[in-house]
Design a protein that fits this description.
Helix content: 40-55%
Shape: globular
Number of strands: 12
Distance between the termini: 36 Å
Largest sheet: 3 strands, antiparallel
Number of helices: 13
CATH superfamily of the largest domain: Lactate dehydrogenase/glycoside hydrolase, family 4, C-terminal
Length: 320
């Protein structure tokens, strides 16, 4: 789901040649060979080379962009905390490999857990050259904008296409505490830009079912297909990395899980937390100055508290 979009130019542009370096564990190398054959058979003109490997020194050497999707997948009935112990070791290794082998300008989309992102971030890696995206948060923003989901969200609720909705925010963790916030969102209805609350005209839905649907979307997908999100997750990663590469549109922001140091929203600093950000010249900046009401404050603090707990758990695993 991910490789085809990257290789045909959806992420880095239609004129940018691509070398794909595919890192996996040794037992998966025969499967990886099959993936390589399929990519070759697609005859994609931008794809110059595909390098399968099980060696981190090959997998991370001189990378311009790294997409870390090699975590233990979430299974039905699992909480995000259940994944931490298994995945901390993976991302400690990958954080160290990025620091040792990748270009210092590398752009990284980490795993779908902010505490795992912090693990990689904390593994002797210099924060100066990392843009820490919480890539799968964008799938939740996509969910709230009714992209690639079957259930009505903001866009379908308003009877418009998804590209008519902007500035929906996901605050906090990628878990059932994440807070999808439309207080600052805009919807273009019949050529006129309107506040999302005015366009939807249903405060109870926006503060109730809308939030819970987005929060529990991953679990709903797992329950339905017995596997975690794949196509929508890949689309989210591609959209996210493209925004890093080419920047956000004027007057718009997107949500990214970034290092919280120096934030203006009262979030504990030693976290990876999703904020509204703007991007220019491949550099992100938290969008400051948004007014936060009491409803949002409570939701933002609740997801921050969960992240503090997860961070402490992850760091405890790291020290063992």
């Amino acid at each position: 789901s991910l490789l085809y979009s990257i290789a045909k130019g959806d992420v880095f542009g239609k004129d940018q040649p691509i070398i794909l370096v595919l890192l996996d564990i040794p037992p998966m190398l025969p499967v990886l060979d099959g993936v390589v054959m399929e990519l070759q058979d697609c005859a994609l003109p931008l794809l110059r080379e595909v390098i399968p490997t099980d060696k981190v020194e090959v997998g991370f050497k001189d990378l311009d962009a790294a997409i870390l999707v090699g975590s233990m997948p979430r299974k039905e009935g699992m909480e995000r905390k259940d994944l931490l112990k298994a995945n901390v070791a993976i991302f400690k290794t990958q954080g160290a490999a990025l620091d040792k082998y990748a270009k210092k300008t590398v752009k990284v989309t980490p795993p779908p857990c902010t505490s795992e992102s912090l693990t990689a971030f904390s593994s002797d890696s210099s924060p100066a050259f990392f843009i820490w995206l919480f890539s799968l948060l964008f799938s939740d923003v996509n969910d709230s904008a009714a992209v690639s989901v079957p259930h009505p969200q903001v866009a379908m609720r308003c009877g418009v296409s998804s590209d008519k909705v902007k500035n929906v925010i996901i605050w906090g963790n990628h878990s059932s505490t994440q807070y999808p916030d439309v207080h600052h969102a805009k919807v273009n209805v019949h050529g006129s830009e309107t506040a999302a609350y005015d366009a939807v005209k249903d405060e109870a839905w926006l503060r109730g079912d809308f939030i819970s649907t987005v929060q529990l979307r991953g679990a709903a997908v797992i329950k339905a297909r017995k596997l975690s999100s794949a196509m929508s997750a890949a689309k989210a990663i591609c959209d996210h990395m493209r925004d890093i590469w080419f920047g956000t549109k004027e007057g718009e922001f997107i949500s990214m899980g970034v290092y919280a140091g120096g934030n203006s929203y009262g979030i504990p600093e030693d976290l990876i937390y999703s904020f509204p950000v703007q991007i220019k010249n491949k550099t992100w900046k938290v969008f400051d100055g948004l007014p936060i009401n009491d409803f949002s404050r409570a939701k933002m603090d609740a997801t921050a508290a969960e992240l503090v707990e997860e961070r402490d758990t992850a760091m405890d695993f790291l020290s063992q």
